[in-house]
Fold Peptidase T.
Amino acid sequence: MQHIIDRFISYVIIDTESDPNSETTPSTQKQWVLANKLVEELKAIGMQDVTIDDKSYIMATLPSNVDYDVPTIGFISHFDTSPDFCGANVKPQIIRDYDGKDIVLNAAKNIILSPNYFKDLLQYKGQTLITTDGTTLLGADDKAGITEIVTAMEFLINTPEIKHGKIRVGFTPDEEIGRGAHHFDVEKFGADWAYTMDGSQVGELEYENFNAAGAKITFKGKSVHPGYAKGKMINSMLIANDFMNQLPSGETPEETKGYEGFFHVHHLTGSIEETVLELIIRDHNKKKFEKRKKLIEKIARKINKKFAKQFGEDIVITEVKDQYYNMKEKVLPVKHIVDIAEKAMKELDIKPLIKPIRGGTDGSQLSYKGLPCPNIFAGGHNFHGKYEYVPAESMQKAVEVIVKIAELTALEESAKK
Ligand SMILES: [Zn+2]
């Protein structure tokens, strides 16, 4: 266990925060520091074909150790951390034999990680927790995933009696700013399918995510002196308000769960002459997703009609752009890749928690690029903030799941012989 803790800590103390305002890949130069370290480490444990491209995407191979054909499988995680919270000077704390009580992350600032608020903590009584010092995020998202993949590969290399096919490993930058899959060379990776190790608690297995679109809606107006405005002024802010009122009530992120979709207004700036409203549209169901996008256009048309005479041209201009799609469509035809992961967990006495993701993963984009890619737990909790923590035992379980999936994939092929 100490080995996995040491490895994890050696990654999280390196700042790899990504930056959505940067145009380069990786978005921040500092991501190279960990990327280069990972390349050396993959070589050192005995991985083959270790490559890093000019955008810092890392790939490596563990060759097959059987004499029959087995599908090539991949394991993927990202080495950047979220720009939502400070990722520099991470000082991890190790809580051994956790007693189920409050954990003082930072006495000076009175920052407490408490099971009264974070109830999940109680499942980890007696385990070894790795936490922050209350001033940064931890970066278990997704350096836990990297730790697990490297450790699993090392274990397989040192344990040749476990039989497996060819395994590919992929580490990416910039997942947290939605670009991790953008420059991922699926052809070069050359796997039949893969798993992102980027979920949260032990047992998570996900192959359904949202269909996602973003909309920018511009409302025009006419500014006239308020004293002489009767019949002349058009206040774009009030039109935007009218638009928002026509969105279905109760369908916001704060009022939905599970498979329920939503509209989420996340930005609004305005003056009398012009108001810009930005919202995102999310739905697991493709038909409902398309319907939601049509509703945006329908409301806009209705308002445009109302102001056609007075304004002379369209007063509402909509731009709706698709962002990503539900990977379920790409994974269901190859459902056995989920079944193998589920079987692996069950054989390890881990209860699979299969649920739809209310968001997207790199795996959803990769699935549409031709690499079906469900998501598996990496073990951490409370991502993107100071309360982030990961139990070492959960990382160890993820290592075992990776090893077991590799083993089962080879075993199922040999059974076909
Ligand atoms: Zn992540």
Remarks:
- The first helix runs from residue 2 to 12.
- The chain has two domains: 2-208+327-416, 211-323.
- DSSP finds ten helices and 17 strands in the chain.
